[in-house]
Structure to design on (349 residues):
């Protein structure tokens, strides 16, 4: 199995995630699409780790996993705080810091 | 070789379908489920790349724990979008354009010379490559500082989540008085706000109701003297019960 195919797939997944971040307005779905982009990066890292026969890329992927978990926790905490204060959960309507 | 190719094609199609499902489905709950499928397909791809520990961590941490968190928050907040793309702004219209440009750019980069180094099956690896033992040796040896920093980052994120999701009284007090009382605080607010404004309004009602119940019990029990005395004292103790809530609740 050619390692390059994994990188191609990771590029497609990254594009899908980026399109989701640009298109969707629900912050929950935007967080999900961020997960997609991080996972695409993970796939590329593991593919390169396999291509070089070196475990460093896998350690990097694990660190990305940790960072993604932290980002999810903080993002979901923000969304819950928004919902509690009756702020609409919609990124187009959260405009108080709008310049 | 043939088996690996078949597994790769199936997992890649599932991963792409899951990714597109996350982006295109209207209901956030379905998006989360689609992401779970995507993550499991990605774990299969990691196994194909001989990253067994990363695949296991992906399934356990991501598809297990993080997605459960997502499902809880989606069930708590809920609500789908009416339309996928915001019609009014320019950004809403330019978003697909940006995504298409990014896709073309990445395709060009991938199809160009960028992948010449990683063509082929990859370097020959030892037998235990990507196993938990190998990753553990790397994490606790060469990448010890990275490992400790990651653990500290997790601690900070946990503390931040507790601080963010805490119920802050000062910030929510003005929202409770507004007309937009939400569904989850509306039943809890009378108990929270009852003792403060006067503490006399709900209490006599409760004590008279209790006195009425006691009178009913007394008449059912057949006019025993102690019960009858309590039932007789019921309307009289309404004024007393308004002053001391222990009488009404006892």
């Amino acid at each position: 199995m050619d390692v390059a195919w994994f990188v191609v797939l990771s590029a497609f997944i990254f594009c899908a995630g980026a399109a989701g971040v640009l298109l969707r307005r629900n912050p929950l779905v935007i967080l999900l699409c961020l997960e997609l982009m991080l996972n695409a990066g993970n796939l590329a890292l593991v593919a390169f780790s396999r291509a070089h026969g070196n475990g460093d890329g896998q350690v990097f992927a694990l660190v990305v996993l940790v960072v993604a978990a932290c980002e999810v926790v903080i993002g979901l905490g923000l969304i819950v705080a928004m919902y509690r204060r009756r702020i609409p959960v919609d990124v187009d309507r959260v405009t108080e810091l709008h310049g | 070789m043939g088996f690996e190719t078949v597994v790769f094609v199936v997992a890649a199609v599932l991963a792409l379908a899951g990714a597109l499902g996350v982006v295109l489905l209207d209901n956030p709950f379905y998006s989360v489920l689609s992401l779970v499928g995507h993550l499991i397909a990605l774990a299969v791809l990691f196994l194909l790349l001989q990253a067994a520990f990363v695949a296991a961590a992906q399934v356990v941490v991501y598809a297990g724990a993080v997605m459960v968190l997502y499902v809880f928050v989606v069930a708590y907040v809920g609500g789908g979008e009416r339309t996928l793309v915001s019609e009014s702004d320019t950004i809403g219209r330019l978003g697909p354009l940006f995504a298409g440009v990014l896709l073309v750019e990445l395709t060009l980069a991938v199809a160009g010379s960028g992948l010449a180094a990683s063509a082929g099956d990859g370097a020959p690896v030892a037998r235990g490559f990507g196993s938990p033992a190998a990753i553990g040796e790397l994490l606790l040896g060469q990448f010890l500082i990275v490992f400790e920093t990651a653990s500290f980052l997790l601690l900070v994120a946990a503390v931040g989540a507790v601080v963010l999701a805490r119920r802050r009284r000062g910030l929510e007090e003005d929202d409770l008085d507004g007309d937009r009382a939400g569904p989850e605080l509306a039943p809890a607010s009378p108990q929270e706000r009852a003792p403060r404004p006067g503490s006399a309004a709900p209490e006599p009602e409760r004590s008279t109701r209790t006195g009425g119940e006691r009178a009913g019990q007394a008449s059912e029990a057949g006019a025993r003297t102690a019960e009858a005395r309590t039932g007789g004292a019921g309307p009289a103790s309404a004024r007393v019960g308004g002053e001391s809530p222990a009488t009404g609740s006892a």
